[in-house]
Amino acid sequence: MSNPTSLESITVGIDLGTSSIKVVALKNTAPIGEAVAPFPTLSELPHQAEQEPQDWLDSTSRAMHALNSEVTRQQGPRWTDQVSAIGLTGQLPTLVCLSSHGPIAPAITWRDGRADAWGTQKVQARAAMYATTGMPIDARYLAPMFEFHFAKHRHQVRRILSAKDYLLCCLTGLEITEPSTAAGFGVYDLHTHEFSEQLCEFWNLPTAILPKIRPANSLAGPLTEQGARLLGLSAGIPVSTGAADSVSAAFALAGLDEHCVSISFGSSTVMVSACPTIKLDSSARYLVTPHVIDRWYGREMDLLATGTGYQWLSKLFGWNDHQIDTHAARSPPGANGLVFPPYLAGGEQGALWNPKLKGALFGLTLHHTQSDIARAYLEGVFFEIRRCIDVLAECGAISLIKASGNLTASPTSLQLLADILQRPVSGSTNRSPAAIGAALLAQKLVAHSTGAHDPAAAAGTATSAAVKHHSANADLYNNLYQRYLERSALCEY
Question: Span 247-429+463-488: which CATH code?
């Protein structure tokens, strides 16, 4: 392996996402290759969303093979000799239960809603839990997942891990986590930086099966021979503890700028603003997530089904990628009176924590077109984002939005988002800002350990020029937003 302080050193970021593995190679802060490999989700039962951990490993191997082919064409076959560190990130919360022989069952992903009703009845002291954890706890955290799905099998479980940390274990042999991923257990105390014994008792979660917590973006360990074979890299490369996908993507997009909100459009939509102190919300409308740097926090809000809703609507109408955006641009502001609150999955809905919310089409008539429905859907998603941004702005001005995902490839949709938010929006078309964030954090790890210059210090700059909002449209979208709030308040079923 080459000298990790070299300007020619390369870091690899791996994102274990909701439906695919995404990998990226960075030289300094510039991507020199990206690759994606999908994996399936088991959804045979109502609200079920499970995945096989072995599928994650198989997809990781395929993605790294594709990355190797792409980077070799540019850098030559010896590029792997320059890899100085590996960073990890992943979907959260997703539960893996391990015995002495590996996973005892498929992983329960954050999209699994089978425990929603049970969780609503179980959690009575939600405000007290939020004060401790910074999480408005529902059943989609690892501790309640474990209680609901594995109570009868707890004697078989030696360790529970989240998805990213399972991959970390496969690469290094270590069963550990870090603060941002630990927060997804639902029992992490923001103030003591440890798992809360009291909350573990509440969820009947044995503390002995919890992983140890290492500092954010610290050295987990060297890549083992087994991990090296999986990735097609050399054993001994340093592997970072990594971070949750939400804060990894936010770091790649916005760095630690307190006045910028990152928006990652994927299967869900994740909004994060950075904060150097713990700022809890009196109404528990957002999560307070440990950020990628110790003693920094992300105020996070998630819309769970926006990307999957985008795919669902595309499939329903037989459209290819981005045809929703094309059709939406043909309909006027307000979609000819149509209102579409996008509550297409249970659980968290941005600032609204109500699993009884259901999507609806208000004002539908025989005169409406597919384009009107597409427009109403995008406006509904963006109005929900505005609801979230307004909440985050209560603690300080939000002057810029940085977005990533498929939506950013459509100039008309990006302009619509800017007009509805009434703030400039810049976009990134990178396939995985979370993977890029993981690779940037690996660079920081190398720089910290060697005393070298940190090329990732200026993270948050790899986006396009900002699209400015049209001030002339402010009154129009303010009125449409008020109409949306009135209609969406009727969506509890």
Answer: 3.30.420.40
Transcribe 118-164 into DSSP letters. Answer: HHHHH---HHHHHHHHSS---SSSHHHHHHHHHGGGGGG-SEEEEHH
What are the domain boundaries of the chain?
A: 10-241, 247-429+463-488
* Domain 10-241 bears CATH identifier 3.40.50.1110: no
State how far the Cα of 488 lies from the Cα of 384, in Å rounded to an integer. Answer: 10
H or E element that contains 246? helix 245-254
Q: How many helices (H) and strands (E) does the chain have?
A: 15, 24
> Are the CB atoms for 304 and 345 separated by under 8 Å?
yes
Whether the pLDDT of residue 187 is over 50: the answer is yes
Judge whether 404 and 264 are in contact, CB under 8 Å: yes
Give how far Cα 313 sits from Cα of 284, 310, 371, Å.
Answer: 31, 5, 11
SS3 readout for 344-360: CCCCEECCEECCCECCC
Which residues on neighbouring strands pair with residue 213, listed in sequence order? 177
Predicted local confidence at residue 345, as pLDDT: 81
- Tell whether the model's pLDDT for residue 99 goes beyond 90: yes
Cβ atoms 181, 171 nearer than 8 A: no
Q: How many residues does the chain have?
A: 493
Q: Find the DSSP H helices in 422-473.
A: 433-450
Distances (CA, A) of 17 to 53, 200, 377: 12, 27, 24
Instruction: Find out whether 429 and 462 touch, Cβ atoms under 8 Å.
Output: no
- Fold agreement (10-241, 247-429+463-488): yes
Burial of 14-45, coded b for 16+ CB within 10 Å and e otherwise, reads: bbbbbbbbbbbbbbebebbbbbbbebebeeee
Q: How confident is the model at residue 451 (pLDDT cuts 50, 70, 90)?
A: low
Report H helices in 266-349: 306-317, 323-328
The model's confidence at residue 455, banded by pLDDT at 50, 70 and 90, is: low
Q: What three-state secondary structure class fits 400?
A: strand
Instruction: Tell me the pairing of strands 30-38 and 102-103.
Output: unpaired
The sign of the CA dihedral 363, 368, 370, 376 is negative
- Report d(CA 394, CA 385) in Å as an integer: 15
